[in-house]
Amino acid sequence: MRRLLCGWVLCGLGLFSLTFVAPAWGQVAPGGLVPETMAARHGLTRAWFAQTEINAQFSRLRAISLHYGTLFAVSDQAHVQAFDAETGKSLWSLTVGNLKYPTTGVGANATTAAVCNGTTLYLFDRASGRALDERDLGGVPTAEPAVSDDSIYVPLSKGLIEIQKIQRDPNRAAAVAGSAGQTFKSPLVTYDSVVWGSDAGYVFSISNANNASRFQAETFGAVMGGLSYRPPYVFAGSLGGYVYAFHEANGKVLWRFTAGDPVREMPVVLGDAVYVVPETGGIFRVKAATGLEQWHTPFVKHFLSASKTRVYCTDAVDRFTILDAANGARIDTLPLTGYSLKLENQLNDRIYLADGKGLIQCFHEPELKEPLMYVPPKPVKAAVVVPAKTKPAKEAKAPADAADAKPDAMKANKPEAMKADKPAPAKGAPPVDPFK
Question: What is the reported pTM?
Fold first, then answer.
């Protein structure tokens, strides 16, 4: 029920009546703290909230990122703070470089965190925030660094990826991988590759073992969002309105899905589901193995996270929206607006929202006391089969004139590379699922 507050204002020549409408009970001020009772009414629990140590009068929170159970927050004045992503406990807080220089988001592996301020790369111990190293870069960073087990990959202007070893080698200069166009998202580090997209309409891949090029694949339109991964495929969206599934070893396209409008956000792959949000709104759920549409729900603008039964998004007017994971039907809508930072979480089911003043909140379903993890499984490498020693077969005598060979003989002598590896599927049979 709304409360009406009336008043009188003397203005100019007359007396005017004003009626003020107070917020409805249960609504939250834009970007404000969500009451636990309100979250519970919508099937959620507010796991924690925390205020970063930024000075909200002069600074704004610029980026949040999640790596290995740590949530990192970065302000526009070079302040970096790390939180335990499950409890909200502040782990460490520091300022890097020059407050006037732009600061990227944080990239991290299990032990090392990396952030760029201006044209300098800073390395920290992920758990304690202890400074490890700082290094000059060969250009201006265009996105947060990506960190593998032993290397750091920094996207630079002019289409370069600078590659630094975590353990500095004074006798070895940083490596550089070139590409057409610039990348504005952190590269994707898989078990075997490092992959990134560019605004020139390409996806590039190098080996994370020796930096050798693996493939360069062209897309219809610029690739402006991040990439997702489920072995052995990498998923990329383009401004041409397509989402692609590329094999990470050779760039071969498994499928291409048409979203109908530019895809600027990262396609999120969770299990065998790929969630696609076109620029003009709406969300698709696509089967990762085949690229076939499973459902579509209109008026959705951003993907947040998902559990086994629910998908969490924000809608066209920035309201918090809950969908049924099975069919995309709307379950609920919460009047939560004003959160400028919303983590697109493809690592687990947790929902992370933050406002510009540095307030961070985490939500999840009450029964999911432990996070539902979506870590991609390691690729299964095929075993090397050594053939048993056998006596060489007698060589078949070729016809004197190939033109005299009978059709059956030609079929029998068909090269092995041209023979089918396995029988063709029966008509109407479902496509083979490469994820099983």
Answer: 0.81
Tell me how crowded residue 387 is: count the other CB atoms within 10 A of its CB. 5
CA distance 93 to 79: 7
- What pLDDT, on a 0 to 100 scale, did the predictor assign at position 189? 96
Q: Identify residue 198 by its one-letter amino acid code.
A: S
Reported as a single tens digit per residue, the pLDDT across 378-400 is 776 644 444 455 444 444 444 44
Residues of the chain with pLDDT under 70: 1-29, 31, 380-436
- E-only strand ranges, 185-299: 188-189, 193-198, 202-207, 213-218, 228-230, 233-237, 242-247, 253-258, 268-270, 273-276, 283-287, 293-297
Q: What is the pLDDT of residue 21?
A: 38
Which residues lie closer than 8 Å to 94 by C-beta, 6 or more apart?
A: 79, 80, 81, 124, 129
In this structure, what token pair is assigned to residue 126? 């992920």
Residue-level pLDDT at 92: 98
Task: Count CB atoms within 10 A of the CB of residue 169.
Answer: 9
Query: What is the structure's pLDDT at 342?
Result: 93
DSSP states along 278-317:
-TTS-EEEEETTT--EEEEESSEEEEEEE-SSEEEEEETT
The answer to whether residues 34 and 354 touch, using CB atoms and an 8 Å cutoff, is: no
Q: What are the backbone dihedrals phi and psi of residue 130, each rounded to the nearest 5 degrees, phi first?
A: -60, 130
Query: Radius of gyration of the chain from Cα atoms?
Result: 27
> Which one, of 199, 276, 200, lies nearest residue 235 by Cα?
276
The C-alpha atoms of residue 426 and residue 429 are separated, in whole angstroms, by: 5
Is residue 67 within a helix (H) or strand (E), and if so which, with residue range?
strand 61-67
Sheet holding 359-364, edge to edge: 45-51, 359-364, 351-354, 341-342
CA atoms of 18 and 350, how far apart (whole Å): 44
Query: What is the Cα–Cα distance from 253 to 251, expressed in whole angstroms?
Result: 6
| 107-108 vs 90-95, strand pairing mode | unpaired
Q: How far apart are CA 299 and CA 301, in angstroms?
A: 7
d(CA 99, CA 272): 43
Residues in the chain: 436
Burial class (CB in 10 A: 0-12, 13-18, 19+), 11: exposed
